[in-house]
Design brief:
Layout lengths: L3 H7 L1 H5 L18 E7 L4 H4 L6 H8 L4 E3 L2 E2 L5 H10 L5 E2 L14 H4 L2 E3 L12 E2 L9 E2 L7 E2 L12 E2 L13 E2 L3 H7 L4 E5 L12 E2 L26 E2 L9 H5 L10 E2 L7 H7 L5 E5 L31 H19 L9 E7 L25 E5 L7 E2 L3 E2 H12 L25
Parallel strand pairs: 1-15, 1-16, 2-18, 3-19, 4-5, 5-6, 11-14, 11-15
Antiparallel strand pairs: 2-17, 7-10, 8-9, 12-13, 16-17
Helix pairs in contact: 5-11
Amino acid sequence: MIRKAAVLGLWAMTLAGMIGAQEKDVPKDIPHLDHVFVIMMENHGYQQIINNPNAPYLNSLITGKKVNLAANYFAVGHPSLTNYLEIVGGSNFGTRSDNNPAWHSTTCTPNLQSLILNADNYGGNPPAGLQIESTSICPIAGKGTDADTPAVDNWNEVSPPQFAFLADIDGVKSIPASNKIEGKTIADQLVRAGLSWKSYQEDLPLSGADGVNYASENGTVSNLTDFTNLSPITSANVVQTYAAKHNPFVYFKNVQEGYQWNNSLHNVVGFDGPRGLYADLGSGDVPSLAFIAPSQCHDDHGRGNGDSFCAYDGATDGTQLNLNPGLIQQGDVTIQKLVEGIKSSPVWHEGRTAIVIVWDENDYSGVSSQPTGLFPPQNQNSVVLTVETNCDKTGIQSSKYYNSFSLLRTLEAGFGLPCLNHACDSGVSVMSDLFGGHEK
């Protein structure tokens, strides 16, 4: 157990560079939104998706001017979970890892209060004086201090070897820690405002998300499964298609404990089943915010023990070289199914609705070369984001700088919610040009 004085000493340098963050004024500059569908894709940079022949549907939406394109949009950091937390909560909450939740723990201290960074530490050489842990993540709650995001991370999650370094943001910017972080997400804000949310997770078991760190296709087996009667099959044979790390809401204490029924694990469902995505689309009974995470075989992530259409990419240099064409095609078909399903729903013809398709981060390659796409951002952590609403002109290609915090700020503006945590930071802009708003 590290004494308080020692912890404060370890974080002294970070504390000196802190900036403020909290809930502040309601962002403006886009029209009201009734419903937003956010489709989360995985681990591919801008130039790996744009003009990729194995992603014909998405590229047809862009070249056919059926969607708006953020051509200068950046993920904040690495790895996946960190980005998911930043999109829905405006902070990493002291987590720069993909570690599983410490489900319902009553003995651990949230990283916001402990000031200990939860990290994967694949590089094995954290900066001197930085205290880290690589355990399950304590349920996020309360207020406190998050972790800074360096411009370049050369110690955490730097494997396999071809990834010489990880460029956070665009390889130039960094984000200091804030000591004014609130341990909540846009989900809490929506419920407080009388609105609603759901996290739709493909291959989530029908029994629900509680305690589930991973599950196989159709939610057949998970880390909770007793394999006694499945011999010779063991947990090592499981292709982990559902992953908690792509379901950020389950990391928060109030969601795990279900203090409010409409802001709990009850809000986390699969694609199938009576309360799943396709049932809700069919009825038109969809929440204000629909957070959609396809399985790891369908979101461009891939698995090491997956089939040819789910296998990881080969060693890449940040371009389309050595990408798994089957994995990219699988993701593109999934996007098409989801978009066409949404547009077939009654909700697409009611009120003001938006579809956002976004990749969480690039493939870690850190190569600074010119992309082959429509605008040449640095290839550090540049990813694709598209927007389509049912009310506005499409075909806009924006070269304005945006990042994950911009996406959160924009969603909050559309729902009339105050900005949260780093979405309030200076320089974080609402995506007014992409969401049918007016520019100042």
